[in-house]
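Tokens for chain A. Residues wanted.
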């Protein structure tokens, strides 16, 4: 049912405020793995042009995507934000209290309550650091969702193709080529995200994580196989549906199914891994026009069921629950995709006929009035 524009904007504003409140209650964008804190260290170095220091401060084996994207924002907003670390009101998670990585995570966590008032070494709160950039990212996501829901059946234009190809070329030229020319091996390790020198066989609560193969091979499966599987799914669906894929529901369902393949082949379990699939499940409910029952149920089951199960059950049971939730997301995406693409496509001739009919109806109503 259509709603007034004022009501829609009020709902968007309320959603953004609620997101900010939830982040504030959690003490900032602090994940259990503290990747948020780890990637901000090289970001600050990049914002000052200190590339060698940025390499030294890179403590996670991932491509430098966040530092390259966030560093310009840190430069622009440096009077307001820019600190690489911030204090948190949340204690060290129980799962990180012990073990080989405990000291590493403790070195990144700084409790606000333990700081001396007025100390020069006191860290700022998360909203005066790079943590606030996470809220800005959600604004971009909200705008993208809105544009997607407004999409209509239409054929792709050459401008869209040029925009996509140009963006990909710009990423290669600006984000990869300079590093590749300097050190090809290190660049490949960063891009592949599978550099685990010195790591043995670690078994975690997923199907891939329980395999008795090297960690490098597990990461190859977890990060490369989903791309290949998603490509096959996209080609198969396009071959069968063609123009009917332009429907918003079909696009969201396909994206959800592709994201779920990443979960199916995941090597470990972290809370934020469910974030992308949960968002697209929610968007799918909106695109279909139904209450977000499926998305909210899935989010609650994964957040309080699958994640919590790892601390009370064996890895086999955890892997089964993780796989079930991943396949459920995949099935929901494919189901929405199948339902949407079963509808007849609207070609140019049908569009012209529909436009002519609408114009005739409008003239008829005007003459009757």
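Reply:
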């Amino acid at each position: 049912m259509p709603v007034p524009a004022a009501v829609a904007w009020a709902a968007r504003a309320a959603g953004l405020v609620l997101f900010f409140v939830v982040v504030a209650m959690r003490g900032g964008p602090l994940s259990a793995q503290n990747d948020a804190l780890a990637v901000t260290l090289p970001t600050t170095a990049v914002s000052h042009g200190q590339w060698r220091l940025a390499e030294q401060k890179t403590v996670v084996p991932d491509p430098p995507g966040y530092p390259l994207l966030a560093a310009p924002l840190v430069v622009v907003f440096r009077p307001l934000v820019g600190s690489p670390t911030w204090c948190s009101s949340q204690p060290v998670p129980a799962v990180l209290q012990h073990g080989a990585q405990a000291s590493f995570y403790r070195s990144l966590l700084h409790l606000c309550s333990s700081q001396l008032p007025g100390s020069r070494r006191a860290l700022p709160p998360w909203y005066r650091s790079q943590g606030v950039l996470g809220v800005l990212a959600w604004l971009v996501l909200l705008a993208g969702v809105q544009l997607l829901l407004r999409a209509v059946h239409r054929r792709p234009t050459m401008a869209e193709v040029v925009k996509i190809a140009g963006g990909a070329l710009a990423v290669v030229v600006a984000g990869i080529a300079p590093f590749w020319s300097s050190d090809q091996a290190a660049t490949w390790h960063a891009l592949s995200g599978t550099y685990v020198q010195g790591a043995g066989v670690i078994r975690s609560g997923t199907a891939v994580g329980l395999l008795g193969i090297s960690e490098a091979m597990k990461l190859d499966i977890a990060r490369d196989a989903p791309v290949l599987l998603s490509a096959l799914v996209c080609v198969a669906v396009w071959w069968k549906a063609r123009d009917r894929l332009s429907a918003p529901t079909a696009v969201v369902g396909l994206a959800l199914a592709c994201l779920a393949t990443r979960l199916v082949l995941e090597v470990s379990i972290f809370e934020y891994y469910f974030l992308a699939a949960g968002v697209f499940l929610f968007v799918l409910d909106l695109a279909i026009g139904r209450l977000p029952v499926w998305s909210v149920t899935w989010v609650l089951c994964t957040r309080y069921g699958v994640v919590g199960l790892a601390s009370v059950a064996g890895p086999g049971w955890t892997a089964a629950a993780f796989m079930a939730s991943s396949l459920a997301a995949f099935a929901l995406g494919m189901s929405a995709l199948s339902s949407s693409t079963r509808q007849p496509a609207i070609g140019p001739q049908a569009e012209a006929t529909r436009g002519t009919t609408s114009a005739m109806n409008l003239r008829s109503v005007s003459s009757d009035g």
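Residues 346-369 have pLDDT under 50 and may be disordered. The first helix runs from residue 5 to 25.
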